[in-house]
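I had to read the description of the data format several times before I understood it. In essence, backbone conformation is discretised, so a fold becomes a row of integers matching the chain in length. I therefore recommend that a typical entry be quoted early in the introduction. For illustration, here is how one protein appears when written out as sequence plus structure tokens.

***
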Amino acid sequence: MKTRRRSERYNPNVKNRRELVAFQGELGAFSQEAARQLLGDSVQVKPYPRFEEVFQALKSGEVGAAVVPIENTLHGSVHENYDHLLNFQLQIVGETSVRIVHNLIAPPGVSLRKVRRVFSHPVALNQCLKFFADHPEIERVPYYDTAGSVKMLMEERPNDAAAIASAIAAQIYGARILKRSIEDDRANFTRFFLLRRPNDPAPALRSTPQRGWKTSLVFTTKNQPGSLFRSLSAFALRDLSLTKIESRPLRGRPWEYLFYLDFLGNVEDPKCQKALGHLGELADFIRVLGCYPRGE
């Protein structure tokens, strides 16, 4: 009996748009692995070149859900997606973390000694600096996507080039892994959000972790001494644990900021409701972006 290729599990050409999950990049991207972790091996995905197109596709109903990266343990936050969360008014319904393993991948017939150029996303290239230090003869070439760089090499077949991407990307496009796990730091994880439109039923998660709930929100305060301290005290006074706080420039109001905040708790909990009510009295603007099971 013939074994199915991994790529056949991911068919973006399904008729029911509500079954499609959008992500940025090409098939084999780490975002696709996040979709699989969240929704199961049979998840149907649709890739888009840019993050904004992913949000637009979900907002318009072209797809039923979307998976986007929000932060990496080494690179930091994906600021563009924080801005899109506010502008597109979509709902966070799940999260997961993907261990990022970077592999050196090339077309069949290309050996490591032949490689003189390596293509990948700039973040991936910068997370493999030890490899490039050990191979000074190899040039780093930025590309828009990790998996997309493998796809491009398999289409163009240069005899001196490789890519940095996931093992799944190598399998999908029929490429060969020359060297596994070349990232500088093994503690390299990216956190992803699962998004849907408000009032749509949430996609069924693969499993619900027994780790409680997390809530994400965004707010602004007056530009006055102590205003942020007083805002955060709404959570401290109720022993609610903050897991992330991120500031982003507030457009149209120079040197003022939006604050994105994650805390452990469910908005249905009276203690959390009191904290949000307290924050609402202090903030100029507040919006809950989502309440979802805490990811692994």
In short: The first helix runs from residue 30 to 39. The radius of gyration is 21 Å.
